[in-house]
Amino acid sequence: MPITLNQVSYTYQPGTPYQWKALDDISLTIPDGEFWGIIGPTGSGKSTLIQHMNGLLKPTSGQVLVDGLDLSARKAGLREVRQKVGLVFQYPEHQLFGETIFEDIAFGPRNMKLSVDDVERRVTRAMERVGLDPSFRQRSPFTLSGGQARRVALAGVMAMEPRVLILDEPTAGLDPRGREELLSLIHGFPDMGMTVVLVSHSMDDVAEMADKVLVMHQGKLFMLGTPAELFSRRRELEEIGLGVPAAARMVSMLQERGWDLPAGAVTLDEATAAIARALGKGGGRR
Amino acid sequence: MNLSSVTIGQYFPGNSYLHRLDPRTKILAVIFLSVAIFLPQTWAGHALTVAFSLVAVALAQVPLKFIIRGLRPILIFMLFAMIFNAFLTPGEKLFAIGTLTVTREGLILSGVAAIRLVMVVIVASLLTLTTSPILLTDGIERLLRPLSPIGVPAHELALMMTIALRFIPTLMEEADRIMRAQTARGADFQTGNIVNRVKGLIPVMVPLFVAAFRRADELATAMEARGYRGGKGRTKMKELALGGHDLVAAVVVVLFTGVVVFMRVTGRG
User: What's the gap in Å between the CA of B87 and the closest CA on chain A?
Assistant: First the structure.
């Protein structure tokens, strides 16, 4: 179920002194089964953008289509859309409320009015998918560590078995190990048949995984392309305060010094291989 | 549900005559004017207080929309006051609904009650619309300070108010965010009967309380870490200072209240 935005603009508190245009004329289509990264500095409109994708926010002007269904239409089946487009907010563990982890994860499926057996099955599967041990089921979510609590919150959305999963800064506040584990977990979601949209303020999070990266800046669509296409425009990215992953930066800087390196070298492995090849050919010496 | 439409005490930034007045002047003026609004017994008296309130509104240079929005919360209260006055005042009978009779005097009284309520709320909202929360609590603290020898904890009260005011928008935002997150998980806050709707708030209230307690804890630690030890010997970065325009405003308000009292006493207002 592709998601399409047509010239979407959104203004917070219009007509007051606090008026703030968070999105400005955004048009894009996210096709089925792709892994998209959305990056941009703080306040660039990333969070506002993703809330349009499941109808939590309605555009001030423009159109959002999910699977061809116009979300701004009155009484468009928004509940159904929200089941199909799962949204994991920033610090999702702050929204846990259940007495037990099972209760919390079951909240979504129960809202879908599924049978007791179906709820049970979905909770079990969701816990499995996010790597939570079944022994956690009867524990209180408030006794968990940060990383575990985040997995529970993630499972709460996964249990609705969405076709599209949108994650807003899923690694914020996690330690390096927790971050690594969560990212590799997310990396596996497209293989389960899900479209994934990963929001981050850091290139490193999305560089290695994303098919496409969307760069937001001041509410506008600043760039859209494959990671390799983006990283070749390092200077522009740095101007809006976004870094490029270390390996890609290395490649870009060598290119600027006249090295003959392919533009597609993004990850550490690709960069190493490309540089080794260039050295072998004597491409490094002028 | 849209929580951003709640404007209790929302400050409207500006630089009008009322904005520049000292908060103490404004607080005392509101007290005087509230008394003045409830005193008059004749139409001439009401007209006078309404006119004075409208001049104050004009001086605040706040869009009328914001002032009217502040009236919304008292609508139900006002309706009750009007209905009770209309039905329960003895006098010349106009018409009856069942055993309840509506009298001429009742209708007049309910109209007067409505005018008074609206005016008091408008005057009070002018205070919060033109005074930033920090200045407002500063003003209250200074006004209460003379009472601290008899055990009124002026500084602590002011601090509690500052913190409460400071965190109302934060809590609103938090509640809004949690509601969005639960909506994304299929929660529904808009439909269903009252029992289901209250039950539906549990997934919002629990995380909201957890967050509030965590935040209070962090705030206390942060304050201690910066050496906060209560109000004793504490200095202010910005001392409140009364100016010439405060004197003018105070004289005008006191004179006006005096005129209203005089009219009431002599039976003219």
Answer: 41
